[in-house]
Design goal:
Layout lengths: L1 H46 L2 H20 L4 E4 L11 H17 L3 E2 L2 H11 L9 H11 L3 E9 L3 E10 L5 E10 L2 H7 L10 H5 L17 H11 L16 E6 L2 E6 L4 E4 L8 H13 L13 H5 L22 E7 L4 E6 L4 E7 L9 E3 L2
Parallel strand pairs: 1-2, 1-3
Antiparallel strand pairs: 3-4, 4-5, 6-7, 7-8, 8-12, 9-10, 10-11
Helix pairs in contact: 2-3, 4-5
């Protein structure tokens, strides 16, 4: 009997322990499930929607494959920009995610963002600037990189088109292009900081109502300060001295034509070089334009120096990286010649460092050329 009772007690005790273990198991299951759920949510917050993650994965694999084929070992990743070459939240996010994935791949050396920013500061540029050949070579010298990844994110109706270009810093030539398209779901919309409110017209919508502003394109030898002031006010151009409240709405669009990067302003019907020349005196500037036309740069032979009106249309009231010009344009050409002269020895120019039209450009001075042509 005693043995039976003892056995009964042990059975009850074992059953009690079993019930307790089941309770504990349920509690741990809840804890584990909660942790897993938090991890999944965290992954979605960090890496975005599944479609975006898939797009990043595809691009990363292609970058790794292309770098391996080209025997590249060191890479810097610029911040991805929007179609207007402006920095954006989604672009910054995508660049950082790509860097993270490339670092984890452990295939080659990826320059950390703080080192890249430091190098750009030494050159006098920021993430918002578009790089030219001289700048790419300088980055290669400072960072010791052999390739550079630059990217663009273009917003479509229901998707994002992501374009990435791999550039050799030795030759400054593009050696691969990677493109993917991802659906614009709720996660991407959140990252872009967008809303579904479609009641108010956007800046892009308002651009469609523009009529082309026709500006004088032929040179003049008779412009004085009074003429400049009247012209600036009449066109509502920003100019630091004569019209600091002016605001002319451009409609810029970047294009690559026959390997030449240009900026088309649909508000004026002008096509600009995104970059331009090195520092030149006035005869050198005229010769530079002549060479472009002889070579039919971008397929055209009607490049010219801009008039003061055309140059003034580029002055922006929003100062970016120390210049009064849209960051789509190369920062190197911070002051440019115009074709308008104020005397037998000097010409007018646009000075983007202080947002003004300047009459003191002696023909022997060294300034830059940003070629322009009128679209037909």
């Amino acid at each position: 009997m005693v043995s039976a009772k003892g056995g009964g007690k042990r059975t009850e005790l074992e059953e009690a322990k079993g019930r307790g273990q089941k309770v504990m198991n349920r509690k741990w299951f809840i804890v584990y499930f909660s942790i897993i759920t938090l991890l999944v949510l965290n992954i979605n917050l960090v890496y975005g929607s599944s479609d975006l993650r898939a797009g990043m994965h595809d691009i990363t694999l292609q970058i790794i494959g292309s770098m391996a084929m080209q025997n590249k070992k060191k890479l810097a990743v610029m911040e991805f920009k929007d179609k207007d070459q402006s920095p954006s939240k989604i672009g910054s996010y995508f660049s950082e995610a790509i860097i993270d994935k490339l670092l984890k791949a452990n295939e080659f050396q990826v320059i950390r963002k703080n080192r890249l920013d430091s190098a750009l500061n030494r050159i006098g540029l920021g993430e918002a600037d578009i790089l030219d050949s001289d700048t790419i070579i300088e980055m290669e010298r400072i960072l010791g990189i052999d390739s550079l990844l630059v990217g663009k994110i273009i917003e479509l109706d229901n998707a994002l088109e992501i374009d990435a270009r791999l550039i050799s810093t030795k030759t400054t030539k593009e050696f691969d292009t990677v493109t993917t398209e991802v659906a614009k779901d709720e996660e991407i919309i959140k990252l872009m900081g967008q809303t579904e409110n479609r009641g108010a017209g956007t800046q892009a919508d308002r651009h469609h109502t523009f009529s082309t502003r026709v500006l004088r394109s032929s040179p003049s030898n008779e412009w004085n300060a009074v003429d400049i002031r009247e012209m600036v006010i009449e066109n509502n151009f920003f100019e630091h001295e004569h019209n600091p409240e002016g605001r002319f709405e451009n409609k810029f669009e970047e294009k690559i034509i026959n390997k030449v990067r240009v900026i088309v302003d649909n508000a004026t019907g002008l096509m600009w070089y995104q970059g331009g020349s090195d520092s030149l005196d006035y005869p050198g500037a005229v010769a530079y334009i002549s060479k472009l036309n002889q070579a039919q740069s971008a397929g055209f032979s009607d490049w010219r120096l801009p008039t003061t009106e055309e140059a003034a249309s580029l002055l922006s009231p929003d100062k970016t990286d120390k210049l009064y010009i849209n960051p789509m344009f190369n920062k190197k050409q911070n002051r440019i010649w115009t074709c308008d002269c104020y005397s037998a020895n000097g010409a007018w120019g646009a000075y983007f460092q202080n947002g003004s039209l300047f009459w003191g450009f002696s023909f022997s001075s060294g300034y830059y050329v940003r070629p322009v042509r009128t679209e037909k």
